[in-house]
Amino acid sequence: HASGGVGQYTLRIEGLALSSKYYVRAYAKNASGIGFGEVLEFETLAEALLPEVSTVEVGNVTSTTANCMGNVASDGGLELTERGVCWSLSANPTLAGSHAAATDASLGVFEVAMTGLTPNKTYHVRAYATNAKGTAYGADLTFTTTEGLPVLTTSGITEITATSAKGGGEVTDQGASTVTERGICWGTNHNPTISGSHANNGTGAGSYIL
After folding, report:
1. pTM value?
2. With bands split at pLDDT 50, 70 and 90, how would you rate the model's confidence at 121?
3. What are the b/e assignments for 39-49, b being 16+ CB within 10 Å?
4. 98 Rama class: left (phi>0) / alpha (psi -120 to 50) / beta
5. How far apart, in whole angstroms, are the C-alpha atoms of residue 58 and residue 22?
6. Contact assessment for residue 134 and residue 76, using Cβ atoms and an 8 Å cutoff
7. Is residue 68 over pLDDT 90?
8. What's the pLDDT score for residue 4?
9. Residue by residue, what is the 3-state secondary structure of 127-169?
């Protein structure tokens, strides 16, 4: 109960049952007896639950990075404190391993970037959402990082003569590491490689002509 005297007071009611209707009224006691205020009613909430979260899809996969989308459909009746994705080389990754949080903790669809991945590996990823009750996880999805090889295109052949021609290419993605050599290779058989005739021109990304 509150202390005596005139004025406003607030008390916390503990130990109530779930999903139950209660009636409450204030009282005050003096030497003449007990006075009561008007009766109010309220109903307690159902038990708070874990959030409802799903792992939607994985996209933009490279040799060392990928993006994952998740969706939080319900906060479980408690404020969300965090949402994001966690990943591992083993099934059903958790927050104990690699994870990244979204920029906000709210309901709806979100997307998180995963970084520091290893080329040519199969990863497991799950979306997660956390409230005061705990952390819930979405379904386990898998994806495989690329091999980390450079990505490039071959430019059209120009200035063709009886004994020479000009060719080149464009490196659009250096892959898992910096391109240290780029060029063209040629031969009279299909799919020539650098074990045969070839010439190089520079390093790194971008277009080149030989």
Report:
1. 0.66
2. very high
3. eeeeeeeeeee
4. beta
5. 48
6. no
7. yes
8. 64
9. EEEEECCEEEECCCEEEECCCCCCEEEECCCECCCCCCCECEE
CA distance 185 to 122: 32
Contact between 72 and 80 under an 8 Å Cβ cutoff? The reply is yes
Max distance between CA atoms of the chain, in angstroms, equals 121
- For 27, residues 6+ apart whose C-beta sits below 8 A from its C-beta are 34, 35, 36, 37
Q: DSSP code of 107?
A: S
Tokens coding 155: 């430019």
Supply the DSSP string of 26-61, one letter for each residue: -EEEETTEEEE---EEEEPPPPP---EEEEEEEES-
In the chain, helix, strand, coil percent, each to 5?
0, 45, 55
- Tracing tokens 């969300």 back to the chain, one arrives at 80
Contact 208, 170 (CB under 8 A): yes
What 8-state DSSP symbol labels residue 94?
Answer: -
Amino acid at 51: P
pLDDT per residue as tens digits for the range 90-108? 999 999 999 999 999 999 9
The answer to whether residue 2 scores a pLDDT higher than 60 is no
Number of helices and strands in the chain (H, E):
0, 17
20 close to 4: Cβ distance less than 8 angstroms: no
What token pair was written down for 196?
A: 């045969």
Q: Encode pLDDT of 3-20 as tens digits.
A: 667 888 888 888 888 788
